[in-house]
Amino acid sequence: MSETYDFLFKFLVIGSAGTGKSCLLHHFIESKFKQDSNHTIGVEFGSKVVNVGGKTVKLQIWDTAGQERFRSVTRSYYRGAAGALLVYDITSRETYNALAQWLTDARTLASPNIVIILCGNKKDLEGEREVTFLEASRFAQENELMFLETSALTGENVEEAFLKCARTILNKIESGELDPERMGSGIQYGDASLRQLRQPRGAPAPSRQSCGC
Question: Membrane topology for this entry (predicted)?
């Protein structure tokens, strides 16, 4: 039986090696921790259909390798991404210090309008923390990112990170800020009838509270 959905969003999971990107993706799709996780070579892929704001959305998620030697390969996957999880490890200042470069790549190679949520992963390792919540929160605010701390081990905030990003994209479609018809938007209609339901240009946007907190 074929899947039916209203929208398809292309997502990226980016960040330095060893931050738990593959484990986050695995937990989101399989609802369990990936025990035997090795470094991703190149790119891995996963997808899941979720309900967001009353709409059915299929997330196509590309999990990119964090090592520098794969950078030229993974950069080609940035094109046409609607959303991204930018991941660092709260127990590794080195991965946090690399965030600015990852962010520049995403906004340059994917789209200036890409919706990004910053994820401080390995929240379960509180005793080994090197990056404070406040510090990362400030970085997110300065760079207009959403922010959550996650744990791929316990599952804390894993689903919420993906859903929060998807919800923001959906809000931007409904307000007219993002156009699924635009080439390279990272958004496709799953249901053709939705094209007719879109508001005509210039119509007042529905008042909706943004979740870019």
Answer: Lipid-anchor
